[in-house]
Specification:
Layout (H helix, E strand, L loop, with lengths): L1 H22 L3 H12 L6 H8 L3 H14 L2 E5 L7 E5 L1 H23 L3 H22 L7
Antiparallel strand pairs: 1-2
Helix pairs in contact: 3-4
């Protein structure tokens, strides 16, 4: 049964990857754009790294590309001038909005096609799996 779970998990990630490729961007760039677009607070590169688990160098390169394309601008943070917040420009909003809305709508439509019991079981199950997985993976056992 675990093999089947893993297969579906991998195929979901592959769907996001395929969507990113169809947009002409990397999956990492799509993840980064999601964090910037969906955040209600000013976003920093550190926050993107923590949310996406992408390396700092990858996030830096993606942000530099977005700046070059005119999609984001960097602004000094009032409380720490060494850090920069990453903000979508008008062009960035125009670029990101249809991408994020389509992705979000697709996710919600797929989820809503499930019956209520399946939705609840899926959410409860994945939450319990995530908790157990983190616990087991981070146990201090000898790695052989």
């Amino acid at each position: 049964m675990f093999a089947e779970f893993h297969k579906y998990w991998t195929e979901i990630n592959a769907a996001y990857e395929q969507y990113a490729r169809a947009l002409g961007v990397s999956y990492s760039a799509l993840q980064t754009l999601c964090v910037i677009y969906n955040s209600d607070v000013p976003v920093t590169q550190r926050m993107i790294c923590e949310t996406t688990h992408l390396p700092k160098t990858t996030v830096h390169a993606i942000i530099a590309g977005f700046v070059k394309q005119g999609y984001v601008e960097l602004r000094e943070m009032a409380d720490d001038r060494r850090q920069k917040s990453i903000c979508l420009t008008g062009a960035g909003c125009a670029y990101a909005k249809p991408i994020m809305e389509h992705m979000s709508r697709s996710e919600m439509q797929a989820f809503e096609m499930l019956d209520e019991a399946t939705m609840q079981a899926m959410v409860a199950g994945i939450g319990e799996y995530q908790k157990n997985f983190n616990e087991k993976l981070n146990q201090q056992e000898e790695i052989k």
